[in-house]
User: What shape does this take?
Amino acid sequence: MGEWIKQRSGFVGAGFTPAFKYFCKNSLIVFERGRKARAYVFALLVFITPVLAHHSTARYDLTKTVVVQGTVTEVIWQNPHVILVMNDTHGKEQAFEAPSPTYIVNSGWTKDTIKVGDKVTVKASPGKNGQLPMYLITLTLANGKEYSPKNPDRGP
Assistant: This one.
């Protein structure tokens, strides 16, 4: 029972009918349960929403693809995303975002799949605003081996 009802027990018991006492007591309990439920829902939304928003592909134009060839200059293999940076054939720096290392390892990649200096061809979806990074769809090494961050066990 809530502190409010305990502190004001004189109010509930002072000359009121049993039905009114019951109503007051149970209304307060329902209110407290509702408050807890609202707090749980609020906490869930606060903690889950950024996770869902962060792992969204909404910033990319998935209806378009570009193919970029070049030389890898940096591979950042860390959570939350693997980032591949390369200089394209025109000398312009390009960056590509892939899912987390855990996810792409399950797709057959290793930390040594791509190394600085590798000549690669990347198929990617550009950002809707035209800014980097692009969303990596496939990566093809000079030997023709193609990698995709999509895990075959998880589907497309």
Summary: DSSP finds four helices and six strands in the chain. The first strand starts at residue 66 and ends at 77. Residues 1-13, 151-156 have pLDDT under 50 and may be disordered.
